[in-house]
Amino acid sequence: MLRVTGAALAGGAVAGCSAAPGESSDTADGGGGGGDDGESSESTGTATSAGDGGSSGEWTQTSTVEMTDQLLYEPERIQVSAGTTVTFENVGNVGHTVTAYGDGIPDGATYFASGGFESQQAAKDGYSDGQEGNVPAGESYEHTFETTGTYEYYCIPHELNGMSGFVKVV
């Protein structure tokens, strides 16, 4: 019985890490919503923002976010001035994406995703069709945030593991 349980648990862990690219949970399609008012420092209560960092509400002033093998964006919540270019650096060995939730960016803001996609669905489809938008180990992705407000983003292959982050532009 322990052997079966262990195998089942291991299979679940692997499935969470390697969820079929492009597949989404309900959160990916509508879970963002963090940018409607443009000034909120609290999460919208989505599944992607659950966990220690997502509920803290503390913002770190930096323009660099690390993507780690622990399936985290570090720091999870950053604050920058409008016009700042943020660099998302993959400091681990596991590939990641930076993908904005379509409804998790301020009104009028430019959509962003590694791979240069113009919508969340296009980013998910691109990743599914050959890991387009993947940021390999040692590489980075940059985006300049022009519009004030709060942006919520996630990693396509690691969304189910809670890999999400926030950028507050003031």
Automatic annotation (TrEMBL):
Chief subcellular location: membrane
Please give the residue ranges the record annotates as the region Disordered. 13-61
Q: Which UniProt keywords apply?
A: Copper, Electron transport, Membrane, Metal-binding, Transport
Question: What PROSITE patterns would the database entry show?
Answer: COPPER_BLUE, PROKAR_LIPOPROTEIN
Compositionally biased intervals (Low complexity): 13-28, 41-50
Q: Name one GO molecular function term.
A: copper ion binding
One Pfam family per UniProt: Copper-bind
* Domain Blue (type 1) copper, chain residue ranges per copy: 65-169
Superkingdom of source: Archaea
- Provide the protein's localization: Membrane
- What does UniProt give as GO cellular component? membrane
This one is known as Putative copper-binding plastocyanin
Which organism does this record belong to? Answer: Halosimplex carlsbadense 2-9-1
